[in-house]
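User: I'm preparing a small set of examples for a lab meeting where we compare how different chains pack in three dimensions. I only have the primary sequence for this one, and I'd like the structure in token form so I can line it up with the others. Please keep the answer compact; I'll paste it straight into my notes.
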Amino acid sequence: MPSLTTITTAPDLTFDALVAGEAGAPPVLLLHGFAESMHCWRAQLAALGDMGFRAIAPSQRGYSPRARPDPCDHPSYHIERLMDDAIAIVAASGYDGRRFHLAGHDWGGSIAWALADRHPERIASLTILSRPHPNAFNRALRMADGEQARRSRHHTAFLEPDAADVVLADDCKWLRERWAAQGMPAAAMAEHLAVLGNKDAMEAALAWYRARGTIRSPLGQIDVPTLFIWGDADDTVGRAAAEGTADFVAAPYRFEVLPGVGHFAADQVPDRVSELLVAHLRDHPA
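Assistant: Understood. Below is the structure token output for the 286-residue chain.
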């Protein structure tokens, strides 16, 4: 079973993390997105540990109280810093310079795509949940039908100064209703709110959006074996962006559609996500 630990990468950066498996086993780094936490990977951590991997799922910058720069210092939350954190967490876990498997959901998927573009020699395999390749996402945002733009309109709302108060209002009503509509179990909601359901953490989480703004930087072709998992009931990612990701992956690529599954697949259908992830890693050993 996963155990809770901390990982220190710098004097002012100590990350809470869930880990599973034996130290020294082939490493897997799992990056969460918004609005969730390291707990979204509980089932996958257990499955990976049982299959002989060392799985590491940190609560990332801003989500971990001891890795929380001032949210008003937006450059501290730029995606480049989030990428630096990921590489540093792998190194601090005993895998400095070694290849590792990488999985990401939502914002964690954005970080994972960027890492695969920047450091393909380090990434043995890439698994993405929900988040399309940025080029496919940008293309879908520009489509005349406006579907993806409508699905992504909350990203602009997150840039507003009062966004944290809006999201946290009425016992996090906005989050709870969205999670419920997307099929997240109540137990998973409680775990994520234990991390994110306070003003300091929420401001830091929204700082990721404020550091990026409305523009997603384009990336090149991905040369890492990639599994992309998308639920066709995802409220934030439409079919055009999801299917279009294939145009931007040059390495072996698998696109897995989960019928009736929403944005939070790892929480909603954990066994199916674990099955797909483990099979992908076995096909592409580090």
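A couple of notes for your slides: The first strand starts at residue 3 and ends at 10. The mean pLDDT is 96.

User: Perfect, thanks.
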